[in-house]
Amino acid sequence: MRSFRIVLLGLTALTAFRPAVGQSGTTSILQPTPVPEVLLTQNTPVQLKLAQNVSNKTDTVGNKIELVLDQDITVNGVVLARKGARALGRISEGKKDEGWQMGKSLKFELLYFKAGPVRVPLTGQIVGEGHRNTGAVVAATVVLGVPGLVAALNAPKTIVIPEGTPLVGYVAEDTKIPVPTEAPQAEVARP
Amino acid sequence: MHVQASKPEVFDEAIAAVTDYLTTKKVVIIADPERGVIRTQDTMSPQNMANLARDATADSVLLVSVDRPIASWIKLTVDAYDLSGSRLWEESASYGGGMNGKSAINKTMEKLQPKLDVHLAKPGLPVKG
Questions:
Q1: Global confidence as pTM
Q2: ipTM score of the complex?
Q3: Could you give the number of structural domains in chain A?
Q4: Identity of the residue in B7, B29, B45 whose CB atom sits nearest the CB atom of A9
């Protein structure tokens, strides 16, 4: 059975900013307060884990895939992104289209993780290892003889990287991240 | 055999039928800031779907699955989850009649719509206004 899914995000209450009654004619000029930033340096290792299954049976080249941080990202005691924050990758080798033909290999590249509003670019590639379905090879051989064996051995192997698989990526370039408001400001000044 | 002959276009039509219905009923759907509407053939745990909803400041997740089972032309399943990843409700409908699957999506939607109507303006199917 083939299955296809979409995920729709629902919002119960839409909130929009409206000026209070009697305030519509007033104008306030607010000076923005500079937000302290912390530098996350290139090549910092980032512990990740897959937030979905990835397979050469279902994933097409170019598909985005979901990951999450498996560890807080901390610089000088300041937590810049919490464990569970979102990260994204992209399939670079997999199915060529959404048809039935499974991909001969499975590879994805890491794109970025989210530290608050900032997308921190990641580098790293993950290659899936395939396994041969022995039962299918035997069945093809029994039914079709040697041609069946040859066809079964030439068929692409099923490759699945399960949800929860731990991975390591690296920060691709120096990135300044605003200190989250809940973080202690004193920590920023620490050398 | 119809399973082997199914095409991605069939899934696109089915998804369009469900989203059209939701739009007509003024169900509030917000786009994921990173990916818009997330379309996948992979499985994802409800907890991770809930994380996506939280990231988009949504408060529920609707998972629409299109299946091509052996015994029917098409099966549509709609699952609603809250932000803890708990399933709020599930509704499904399928159609296996007729000589071909031409009208399967419409027939399935006719069965599914009254089931979804029950959940309108309730958790999982928030509406505008």
A1: 0.74
A2: 0.77
A3: 1
A4: B29
